Amino acid sequence: MMKVKTAIIWFLITLILVTVARDSITCQERNNIDGWTIHQTGTFDFAYHGLVLKNCFPSIDGQPIRPVDVKVVLTGEGGQIHYQLTNGKFLLILEKRNRTFAISAVLEGWETAPDFIHPLASAEVSGADCFYRQGFGFAGPSGMIPIPQPIEKLEFSAELKENVWSYDSYLFTGLISENGATLVISAFDHKNYLHRCTLFNRQYRFGLIDRYKDTDQVFFESGFVTEEIRLTDKRLVLPTIYIQTGDNPYNTFQLQAKQLASFNNVKLNISPRYYFCSWYEFNKEFSEQILNEMLGVMEKMKPKPEIQAIQIDDGYCWYGDWLKTNDNYPYSIMAAVRDYPELSSKSVLFVNPTDKYLEKNYAMKEVAGMDKGFCFSWLPFRSELMGDRGQLDIHLEPHESVLIYISKENAPPPPSLKIAGKVLNE
Length: 426
What we know:
- By secondary structure, this protein is of the alpha+beta class.
- The protein is built from 8 helices and 22 strands.
- It has helices at about 1-30, 250-265, 280, 290-300, 335-340, 340-345, 355-360, 415-425; strands at about 35-40, 45-50, 50-60, 65, 70-75, 80-85, 90-95, 100-110, 115-125, 130-135, 145, 165-170, 175, 180-185, 195-205, 210-225, 235, 240-245, 275, 310, 360-365, 400-405.
């Protein structure tokens, strides 16, 4: 009897080991398949040439959804995942459309939308060497960023160790491997909701004072700001998120851009224009030295960046008098611009004139707008905007706010305004 029990136990152990091995092999084979892998638990993976987003799951307001039931329907190279929630339903549709992969989501049963919805969240990233982010100014500068690597060993210090990070990206987001494999993630429909992707890490350390690195996992999420709006028919259909794949980053981004333009009926009748704004990276600390260094580097780059405009934002002068000098511009901003003839003919100044000449010869008129404290804006000084009495005639939309100056007795504009007027006229 004991021998029979022993044999049965060994049989069960063998069966378990064989099952685990089979599942491991199946998992490994699936990870090597490009495209979607959908699991019966409601999680899903995406892979392309070694770039892997693993254990993805939807989230609402920063928390993974907690379904009471999950139903998976596999179709071709994708499928549907139906999540039954305690207060509604969440449907996720994963597809392949030619070379592009797509994620669509529908939330039902809610009278008010959440603040944030991420159809793709908690994704464990592997195989990525760098990350492309589109900052749109508000999230900082755009560009290709190497994925940060944590310090292996930390020495004792009373200061906190900042080995965790998080980057937001808007419109276009990219994950690129060392060999050039590329994922470009973006929505095409931006009429109602702001689309945002985030790449961040979570780190574990061990040893006294957490000296040694244990694990450092990079995560990715992609979703929409839905701002708790009221929902018609208790139903929210989110824009589709598209994942473009390719083996050349530039070509892959270009293809996604063309598809975005086609979706929105954008026709490029003129060449695209590229701008740089100093505010979002340097705030008020953008100086003549930084300008010189930036222009010098751009001049040596091949191919040369096609930047048509450089906006030197706030901080180049005391408000209203751009001819005065300061630590950032020891010879004034106008002198800095004149050093570059190719820029001086296209210079536009961000102004709020308040010097004594204006106080004496001009009356100030405040036009109510967005914010009482927001009292300066672009000041167009074109001849066609000047009225019969030398007044500055500016049409303002209801949401705009600006201080304008009206001539008391047809006083001629001060020299500094003539400079701004000349270049603005062009």
